[in-house]
User: Fold these one by one.
Assistant:
Number 1:
Amino acid sequence: MDKFVLNIIHRPEMVPEYAEKLTGHGKEEDIGRKSLLTESLDIFKLQQETAHRNGLKTTIQMTYASLFNEEAIALAKEHHEKYGDEIALSLLGLPCKEFREKYKTKDFCIWMFSMEDKKSIVDDVFGKFHDIFGFYPESTGSYYMDADLVNYIKETYPSVKCAVATCWEEGPKAYHTCNNSWYTFMDGGPWAPWIPSKANVHAPAADEKEDAGIVAIPHLSRDLLACYDGNGSNFGTHPQNVLRGMIYDSKTWEYPYLYNLIDQYRSLEKYNNGYAYNMMFVGPGWLNKMGRWEAPFELLKKSYEDGMAYYGQLKKEGKLTDMTMAEFADYYRGKKTYTEPECALWRDILYGSDKQLFWYCDPYMRVCVNMDQGGAIVDLRPYAAKLEWKVGIGTPHVTDASYPFLIQEKYRAGYFTHYAGEGTIKSAKLTYKGEEVDLCLCRTKAAFSEELIEGGRKKRILTLEPVDIVFSDLTVKLQTRIIFEEGSSQLGVERRILSMSNPEAEVELNEYMVACYGTTEYAEDMSSLTLGCQKGGEQKEIAYAYKCREEELVDADEVYCVLPPIKTRVAMSADKAGAKGYVKEGYAFSPMFTLGYTTTLSDKEVFTTWLSLEREN
């Protein structure tokens, strides 16, 4: 039976983000101000009442501040008994007078503290929770939780089985739309629940040995297209995000986009064995009595009530199952295997275009395919490396928790680039009599399918609608399939010529990947990289030195690049005799590298290349 699972998470955040300045009306900062605490608790009550009125259970994530408030504690106990709500523990909501007096800091993001302070804070918060409720929580969370933090919590408090662990695509785009003031970068993680690895929370575990012991859920369910192209904070099933994005009718206060977004999440069961997930996680600060952004409190309240009513109606119709976080962790463990991927064929529901993206995530890679660019790969994260990436004070990454990319069109240009240099992308070019066409210029659509392979595993196949490539005296109809084999750290790209206006003609096909590494727009030092072509015992290598050098080998077994800074080895191979493998070194103005194969194709011929990822050492 198809299942659409919903997590509703509320937190009695006694000092909500942003709210102190609004409630204080310009007075000197006082996070213990009684009016602030009273208003926050009133909003929490409103949220709880709204969920229960619609027949929905919640997970109550107690904050550190709320553990000092008797009314918040009593409400949590009452709602646990009466409605079956889970009493959990959030690592958001740390700021309060008691916290600041003890830790002498205004920091509030748990992953940004030193490891010594992380442990101290966790022990403090978990200990106080146990003192009050008589048990340790089964769920916790934050905007982001780094691997060291998750591992410590699981080892010390083994009851924890579920955690809010990252916020999808909260990187430079979010930073720029916060006036360059939101110093938390966490791009590159899954958009849907996953079992994180012990080495890196973003990267799903490949087996029991890598399993960090929890089920992770994202902080907010985002629009997988609008969020990727723009600021994710405006596009999510968080109703107040939709208001912040001004995606509503200002006269009628209606927001069909919110319901369309929820429905598109429901549709993901088509690609994930009859299972789809959504979450609603709105802190009290978003329902501030003074309003938020340009929206008055009345609209904030209406949007929340309408969103909850929609979920409630879906539940009444038997189309939705509400679970607590702990219940969901048990369900997920029974539903998903380690190697089973998460897939999302996502279409534009906001701007009126026909654009599609396909997202794929498994323990070895996260991939985004853009049908508006002919099925080019526009985002690639090498999870196979299981890159250890320590975060917080005292580490090399105080603020940047992102999982590095090899390809990222938004931060490293993609196909549509400056007149000089190249951007990161994986695509193909066809050449005939000196004319060249890149498939990035050929818009198309995609269909998703599955095939069973040995061991009960599956292939997930993205089949693109054929495109016509028009040269001055030849038209070529070409179809692309992208093949993801479960349990494998490689993906296949198949180019098939369906017809030619001149069946006797031959075209050259250049399957290429332009890549680099990084987490932001800014170039990293590429001088430790090694490029190579390999055929049997023959090997040609380039130690990257920004010199524009190239190497090639006909019938190369593989072409590759080794990237020690992110412990990654990326390679391409081809299945056609006579195909020429090549590598290209970039230069300082265009600090990329290129892997590729060229071959000639005739009518009805097929050329398949394989992209593989490994940990470098």
Number 2:
Amino acid sequence: MEDKIMKRYITLLAFIAALFSCTKAAPVADPEPQEPVIPEPVSNEIIFGVGSDDAKTSLSGTNVLWAEGDTIVVFSNTNTDGVKFKLKEGAGTTSARFTNKIYEKEDPIPVSGSTFYLCYPAGDFSFNGSRFTTKLSSSVSYIERSFGVAANPSFASGNKLDGGNFVMKNLCGLFKVSLKGSIKVSEVDLTFDKNIAGEASFAIPTAGSDPVLEISSGASKTIAMYCDGIQLNKATATDFIFVVPAGSYSHIDLMVCDESGTPTSMSKDLSFQVVRAGITGLSSTLPENGVAGTIEMLTEIPFTDANEEKGREEIKVVSFNVRAQRNEDDVTSEQKWTTRKNAVYDFFTQNQYDIIGTQECEYRQKKNIIDNVSGYGVYGRGSEYGKDDDEEEGYIWNRKYHSQDSGNYIFYRTDKYTLEASGIFWLSDTPSKISKFKSSKHYRTCVWVRLKSKDTGQQFNVFNTHLDNSDDGVRGQQLDVLWAQIQSLNSTGKPMIMMGDMNMTTTNSPLETFRKSGKMFFARNEKNVCFDDAHKSYNCYGEYDGRSNIDHIAYKNFYKIKEFDTDIKTYHSVPYISDHYPIIATLLFN
């Protein structure tokens, strides 16, 4: 019995030993690395069959072609978020294939719907279910024989997405300006009579019709093209191609700057049509009855180099805040009118500028100037009571036998110009009567004259104003009224000058918005399109460093600005003839 137990015990020990022997075997090697499992791409492909005038992103002769890297966004009647597609093949041609490849563990979400809307470029469109919104650039870079990348928005719609054929239609037309000359061009600006850049939208077009692009009221009338010193040729024209909304236009301003920033401008009233998906140009003679809407080649817009000024009538205009005479007891001796007035007379007499627009000029100061300076006529009115006389008629403004109602005056040389018309309006909701905005600190006006050159018969308008010193909000309101009145008074497109103490710079202000809208050209601005001597116009009698350029001269329908200057000279041994320096612009008529 004991032997049997012993045998079983030995057998159990052998089994345990064998078991432990197995656990000491060589370790198992790591398995071979496996390729990750990637699902097959799902491809939604769109085929575009487009005509030679209907594609969009680069230019070859008169054909607008697709380009490498083009992307579109696809919306539908049930998908307003949109899905992006990219160019698969067809770059450099008028036909292309677009694809949307999505790698997902599960099936991709398709672009569902029964009607599909295709928009180019992908990043610039949104859709709310009934209207599409896009943007038209107001600033583009020059590209030889082409136009800005992704600058020509296009649209197509259809009922079949996967493998479907679509015909893209440009929402705009191409506007070609051809220039000859010898200068190097740094900037070309086009300004039209309608908004052409900024936010734009259109409703879902009805079957068989083209989209109707609507530009927002806050958009710009100007497109600026910036160039890296493009050398013009006197024999062969250089083309500058802009994208412009289709439609009818009746006016165009062209401004060309050379490398130094000196501008040459041309302004023309004419009727012409920019056609969607076409190339529009102007004939070399700019005929008054308009131009062809879809001509293939543009010969030349008349353009002369900036140095070719011979034979053009020149005018020197000044804006000068003379500082009102009132409160003489509260200022230092050097600031008193009694100290400064002889220096102001010398400023007038020594320079004999053609036009001098003054602000903060009281009637008594105006009378002092006219009585002591020869050769000038003058028109102006006080801002608060609209008067310009020293008669005792019971007016509060005249209670001390002299006017303390400072206003704006326009002095003009009587040997060169005759006064054809004149007037005043208030910068308020009721510009034809004495009034002001509720938030305005002071009554503010604009006086204007229409002058005629005795030598050439050239007529032009001059507007002289002084905006409020309270805040940008009310100055913006006043600027809107000012522009509306100027447009009404200059409806025939005469050369015009707007000057004054605007109490704001052209940076981060309503005046910057106004300037960039292309309504007028500014003699001095932050882009230095003309000579700028860099002196600040507001000097505060040198009392502190918070000086700024708040005095401005703007112009329109002139050939060009020749020079801009700030007069910091000493007259009659007086270092500051006012708390503002006079600013001077030399303009050339067309």
Number 3:
Amino acid sequence: MNRTNKSRVRVCIASMVFFSVFTQAQTKIDSLIQRLENSNSDVKRFGILDTLTEAMVRKNHPQRTSFLKRTIDLARELGEWDKAVLKLRYVSQEYLYTRKPDSAIYVLDEMLGHRSKFKKRRSVAHLLLKRGGAYFNKEDLKQASKDYERAAHIFHLTKDSIFEADAIYFNGQVQSDLRNFPKAVDQYNKAYALYKSLGDVTYMTHTLSALASAYASNDFVEKANEERQKIIASGLKNKDYYVVSVNAFNIGGGYLKHKDYGNLKKYVDMASHYLDSIPEGNSKQVLQMMIATGYAQYYLEQGDLEETWMNLKRADSLRKTTDAPKYYENNILNVTASYYLRIGKNKKAEQALQKILAKKDRISNKKEMIRAEKQIAEVYAAQKNFKNAYQHLERHLQVKDSAYNTIKTNAFLYYQSLYEAERNENEIYRQKTTINLLEKDKELATALRRTLWIVLFSVILAGTGIAYYIWETGKRKRRALASRLERNKNELLEFTNRLLQKSQEQEVLCQELEQLKLSFGEKEELNTIQELVRSKILTQDDWEIFKEKFTLVYPCFFMGIYNKGFHLTNAEERILALERLHLKTNEIAHMLGISPDSVLTGRYRLRKKLGAPKDIGVIDFLQSL
């Protein structure tokens, strides 16, 4: 028998086995339905419905939802509320699959209203776990997090570790979308530990993938890619091709950020290569959508607009078949807007971008918001709508600064949490060591008496060594502190000089604009530019940066003033800080964007407010108090 005939035989045998199993399943379901119709006892009917709905759920039977609802109603009549909860989980999940999160929340809330009738505490946790998923589907992330945390707590108390791990893992996804990086990492690590204790290799890998994505979104790119390469190797070994594909795509996304389009396509191709080996389902649809979006991004950068449009249409078509089409829409809109901008359809680009901007309070990826603000500014600029262009460009800078500060804060909190975790582990280890020593003390009391002098000498020697180490450490710290203070002073001086230079450049620009007005007359555009140029040079952002550097050099300056009972306005704080740097009146006026007379007036009012004599400087007066 040749290879072709052998293959045909295998296919025939597999088909016969499948048909046999399917027929048996259908026969069982039909038999149970027949028994249900012939039964007059509610208790027997409930038992039959329980078995029947389990079989229908396993076989994805088209009538499963209607029979599940009948089971729930009968369970409530019989007082079997915990059974009703278990069946309601499948109904709520069906609502989510059909993109009806509000219906899922409604039936779950209604059942939670009867929680006092539940015999098992875990029933409440199951409902909260499902409701968290419904809120996540609606992009109500804060409410989803509350439900997941409450569910995880109850599952922990009832020792349902697998569901506890799921709740913690899902909450990690929510925290990641909320940009709470330290909390997301904490939740993923806890979920991973639980999955590991349960031997659930698949979800261990999923958790590591999510953790790598959290690292990447907070600019720990190298650490994220390192983790993803390990996950890909493990996925290939275990033939988990979904994990391989997802992580390959995510690595490609990292290269897109650095405009390395060759590696972008390489890893998107790798993700696409394993699609046929992944079982059908919502996860595969989402992955296919992301891969199509990745190809669209690549071809757009290569200038192949036809391929770009084909992949965008495919991505949007796949998005509509997912269980959260609104949630995944954000992944496509930016690329769609870029495509429309490239082909000159500014109105359509604007519509796509407005959809993103409308989700500013819910969108999880701030980078999409940053990019959208910049793109729509370009759209308005092309339409000669400079007012809107300026507003969106300003928002672009604000969101960009906010995202940068969030990442910076998250990184700090993350390293702080690592330090605290390490410190806690050391403390636990120290306590265990102390307990062990106490136990050994009881057993070795006689021997310790003989070695008392040796121990005492060792303690003195160790104490001397520790004292010397502390002294040396303090010495190094003092040197480092002095060096850091000098560096901070230099940075403050450099920043102040930049502000002065900026004010001088502004003055020159104002003079040039006046010349242009003399040459070309009063023009609206020149007046608009002149208004912008004459705006304050020391902006709020400049002041915040300046104040931060100033406080590093003079940490007790403002605190000392407030401790002496003086309450200063923002303008007074700025004048005092610049006075402390011994700047001249004209220099202060340039930096603040005001006239020298205004500086003198402000200085006079400040002196009067502080009660400083005329024959002594304000700074000298404050230092003498």
Number 4:
Amino acid sequence: MAKKRVVAIDIGTYTAKMVQIEQSSGALRLTNAGVVTYADKDDKQQVAESIRHLWASLGGTAKKSNPLSLFNRNAPEIVLALPRSLVSTKRLANLPTGTDDQLASIVAIAAESELPFRVEEAIFTYHDVRRTSDATSVELISTRRASVTDYLDFLEQMGVSASAVTPSMIAIAETAANSGCTKPTFVVDIGASQTDFCFVEDGVLRFSRSFRLGGDRLSEHISQTLNVDSETAAEEKQHIPADEAPTSTWTAQLLGELRRSIAAATAHRASDSFDATEETDATENVTPTEIETELWLCGGGARVPALAATLEEELGIPTSFWNPLHAIEQQSNIKIEPQGAEVRTILEEWGDTLAVPLGVGFSALNSTLQPSLLPKEAAETLTQTTRQRQIFATAGLGVLIVGGIFFGGYTLQRSQKHRAEMVDARLASYAQPVAAAQAQLGRELALTEMLVHNISPLDILYALSEMFRDRTQVAWTNFNIINLHEPTTARITFNLEGASHEAINNLIGALNRSGVFTNVRPGEVTTISENRKQIFQVQVRCNLTASAVRAFAKKRYPTPQPRVDEPATAEAELEIVPPMSKILELENEEAKEKE
């Protein structure tokens, strides 16, 4: 499978984030990431310059006019996130049934009367398709064309084009699905100025909304209450718990918005779960606790101390701080392999804020249809650029191939004769040594073949009889060997009769411990009665180990043991002392007298 690379970009209020994801052989790898901050979000020139530096740090290029880029077949695909606050959603029900191609036309017709903007000013798509035998329903996603164009302008200044524009709530749901979201889950991504609320069930986005409450509101409240500057307030909010003043005021506002969002999501889920013919009041009393939901917090605003515990206590829903990067790293099919320690540091510091860019990348690599708000004219331009790149790449490859053929033919023609002469000369010099070596090798092979031990059935029978000498307990009734000429593939089959299960088990254990037999596979034990005695029968299959040949050879041709002689005691007893001279005897006697 060819490698596919995607760079996902999320342009936020004060930060822009990029992640690069590669797909190869069905596996996903996060290979690069970067985050850049800017002080004035309304200064588009400053934001564009910051994003351009971030793109360059990831190995991108800002040279749009570079003709060599047309030949770059490994150029990554660029995908862009669009904030949920700029998106409107609405469920279109009771649409006519049809194929996927027909459904796109049906939605386009129905959307004209449902869009909150003028048709010429809007871009729309759809997702969450639900079909019955009589009708089809989809969730319509729309936004203003100008909103998308503003974000695409940042990429235009970098000299790149986006292949898709993914709403942030779709991206959050995709990241949650890839990080092990199994229960119905409320995902709350708290940003600087906005908070995205998503309800994900069975890996699919069921409900979403955005409200204007984020980390900026908390910083402003702390700044006014404590009478400190904005930088000090931003630092203090990282240390004041959610249930203590002045942070508790902001927490109360967040709780109010979450209660409204949870109520809306629960009602939306209930309306989808019950038949339209049932009584409507049957769904009014459904609560989040009855459907065993969870609540995940992520984003920079979720770093407020004790926020998860406070929300869990107030809402009665299990709440946890969710780091998307750590969650997806635990999945076996998604690997985090950053290029360098600096990227790892960025991922550790900003991992809890990467739900949107990660989801945008996953959506681009998903083979199923994913909603995109890319303008039609931008998609056509991208298609034309892709075709031009393919044409130029094909033409360039053709030129290289033709030139290579001519050059190779010319070179081959000049060097062929010289090489042939050199080969002939070397072959002539090697002829006599090769003939001598072949003769010597033939003699050695013949001698080796004569010395190699060949296993015979008698070797195997002898080994079995050595292991089981007591024939009153176990007896062989049949014996078969296949492929004995190749010991590694030899298959041995024999039938056994035993006086008891214990005797058969002892035999099987001895075979496994023998070091000669391997892969011992006993069949089913059956019983028969003979002369009023119960006899147990079983068929056993096994193979020979790699060391069986050597073991059988040692058994057939034992190595002579070295002879150990007894101590030469007799020789010691018969030892004769040589005679001494007269002078030495006199000296010894004088020495003894002096003593």
